[in-house]
Every structure is written in C-alpha cells, then in structure tokens.
Amino acid sequence: MKKSLWHRHWPTQNGLPSLGIVLFVLIIIIILLVTAPLVEFNPLTIVKSTDNFFAFVSNLLTVPEWRYVPTLTHKLLETIAMGFLSTVFSCCFSLPLGILAARNSSPLPIIFHLVRNLLSLMRALPEIVWALLFVSALGLGPFPGILALTFVTTGFMGKFFAESIEVVDVGMIEGVQATGANWLQKVHFSMLPQAMPDFIGTTLYILDNNIRSATVLGFVGAGGIGYELISSIRLFNYGRLILIVLAIYLTVTILDHLSTQLRSYII
C-alpha cells in the first residue's frame, strides 16, 4: 500500500522530523513573525487588557431592564425575519446560477465564465459593505439589510451549489443522456437529485449564518437588533445589553439545534 506524504517524511529512521517538515514549520513561524506587526498583534496587550475585560463583564451582572422585553422581542423577530427571507431569496437565485456556473451543467463556456465572475463579485465584499450601499440608496430599515444578505448569500450558495454539481456521478449523467434527454432533462433527472442533499445542508448553514449576520447589519442602520445592541454599548445601558446578549445566544442555540435535527432527518 502506498504511504501518505506524511508517513514518508515522519517518523524517520532516527525518529526525528524530516528536513521537509522542519522547513515547513520554520516557514510558518517566519510568516507569523512578519505578519504580526502588520496587524499590531501583541500578546502583552492582551495581558494588560485583562482587567478592562473583566470590568466590562462585571457590569453585565446587573438587574435586567424588563420593561425593554417587548421592544427586544420585536427587534429579535425582525432580525430572524431578515435572515429567513434573505435565505429564501438566495435559494431562488442561487439554484439557477449554480447550474450555470458548473462546468458540467453550463450550456456554454462563455456562460460558465460570466456566471462564475458574477458570483465572485457578489461575495467579494462583506454584507455590511453592501448594507451601507443599500442604506444610502434606500434609507434605514430592514429592507436594505435583506437585500445585502441576499446579494452576498447568493454568491456563496451559487458557488457551493456549482461545486456540488461538478462532483456528481458521471455514470448517472451518461445513463440519462443515453435515453436521448436534452440539456434540461439531464440537469433535472441526473444532476439535481445528486446535488440536492448538499444544497439543503448548505441552505441550513446559510440560514444560521444569515441570522447572525443580520445582527451585525443593524450597526449601520439596516434593521434588526444590531442597532439596539450598539446603542446599548455606547450608552453603557447594561440592563438592556444583558437581555440582548442572552436573546441572541438563545436564538442562535435554538436555531442550531433545529437545523441539526432537520439535517439529520433529511439525511
């Protein structure tokens, strides 16, 4: 049996790492040492800031502002709706784009390259940048946030779906082609059934991610609970902040549990 690259290099006969592994580790260390100053990474800063961190956390041990719960519930539901709607819209757009962006399902090479470049453009910038653009054009509120999430998520889901189609079983495709099926029938009866489990799994992951991303978009006025979160931090309103943090945590935990159960059921 052919040994893997790792076992061919280590352990060696003398029990020491091979020259290739030593050089690889040294290169990684050199890269870390070179890049650390660029991002102002300093372990001493972390140690010195420990007191400030624990002081901030201790401020959260306060009496929650219970009268804020109705507003919190409304904003939290708004955030969940933003994540859900953006995921649904992204599924509708990414499915056809993913088919056109896969090498084995795209009808023409020019279409393949155009759609691939479009998907790269859509996910090139983070959601918050697109949210700033849509807020500038459409005003404050959840609608610009939904558009931003839909735009970026479509780029990611289209790419994932295209890659799932490209690795489907060729034998099933050839079997469908042997019956005289056209391009659309080949995609529908041989490619989509094989790629659909990956598409569903990706959709559940994207739903969870979009709800968390919708929280951040509120920082720039794109709706959701994010605006309430950043306002509470700036105003040192720890009674509201503790409720917001707990609400976000519980929401993400519940959705993660539900998505895991649904994924297991589908599989």
From TrEMBL:
CDD domains: TM_PBP2. It is found in: Cell membrane. Its main location: membrane. GO terms for cellular component: plasma membrane. The keyword Electron transport does not apply. GO terms for molecular function: ABC-type phosphonate transporter activity. It comes from the Bacteria. The chain crosses the membrane at residues 21-39, 80-102, 128-152, 211-230, 237-255. InterPro entries: MetI-like, MetI-like_sf, PhnE/PtxC. Keywords: Cell membrane, Membrane, Transmembrane, Transmembrane helix, Transport. Residues 76-259 form the ABC transmembrane type-1 domain. It is a multi-pass membrane protein. Gene3D superfamilies: MetI-like. Belongs to the binding-protein-dependent transport system permease family. This is ABC phosphonate permease.
